[in-house]
Amino acid sequence: DKEVRAIFLRLFAQLFQGYRSCLQLIRIHAEPVIHFHKAAFLGQRGLIENDFLTKVLNGMAFAGFVSERGPPFRTCDLFDELVAFEVERIKAEEGNPPKMIKHVRELAEQLFKNENPNPHIAFQKVPRPTEGSHLRVHILPFPRINEGRVQELLQEGLARSQGAPPATRGDKKCVVPAGPPVGMLISF
Questions:
Q1: FRET pair for 79, CA 20 to 30 Å: which of 40, 64, 138, 161?
Q2: Where exactly are the structural domains of the chain?
Q3: Whether residue 188 has pLDDT greater than 60
Q4: Rounded to 5 degrees, what angle do the CA atoms 110, 89, 19 make?
Q5: Do residues 70 and 176 touch, judged by C-beta distance below 8 A?
Q6: Coiled-coil region(s) at which residues (predicted)?
Q7: Could you give the CA distance from residue 68 to residue 45 in angstroms, rounded to a whole number?
């Protein structure tokens, strides 16, 4: 699962390398609008005639990508690092499948670590019942739930959550690295 995701991550990082240099921040409106200059991106990469990339850039998914990843100050992730710092590495690995596979595995490991930041926390497994445990008579029935007490606990929890400050994520925002300009990239 993670290796397939890593392959797609590399593919999209390769497709969109240099996209940040073609973003324009328009401040005419009350809310700034981020616009992607498609013609400059395709022209500088020499891909004006590339139907696939043109269709990708004209799609709604790419418009969402630009609006989500366009702001210059936001939480950065693995994709941002690939686009900004791994340009040369990805180019060098194009003709060397073992290096490419090694990089995919490194990315997959990083994706796994991002989803499981605390590997030392193990889930406790439920032990198998011993032989003949079903024959024991001393097993007590599950106790009845006191509906009144459940309602009290729910009300207490609601009262606490209404008085508590809103939860914030621990992600730190930073200036998104721009990476090399589009003109320095060679089309693939």
A1: 40
A2: 1-117+171-184
A3: no
A4: 85
A5: no
A6: none
A7: 23
Do residues 91 and 10 touch, judged by C-beta distance below 8 A?
A: no
What are the φ/ψ torsions at residue 67 (nearest 5 degrees)? -70, -35
**pLDDT, position 4:** 92
Cβ neighbors of 69 (< 8 A, separation 6 or more) are 79, 80, 176
Name the E strands within 119-161. Answer: none
**Alpha carbons 180 and 17: distance in angstroms, whole number:** 8
pTM above 0.90? no
The stretches of the chain forming alpha helices (DSSP H) are: 2-15, 38-45, 51-58, 60-69, 78-85, 87-93, 97-115, 147-163
Closest CA to 7 of 131, 93, 122: 93
Using only C-alpha atoms, what is the Rg of the chain?
26
CB 179 within 8 A of CB 17: yes
Rounded-to-integer distance, Cα 107 and Cα 9, Å: 9
Q: Indicate the SS3 state at residue 24.
A: strand
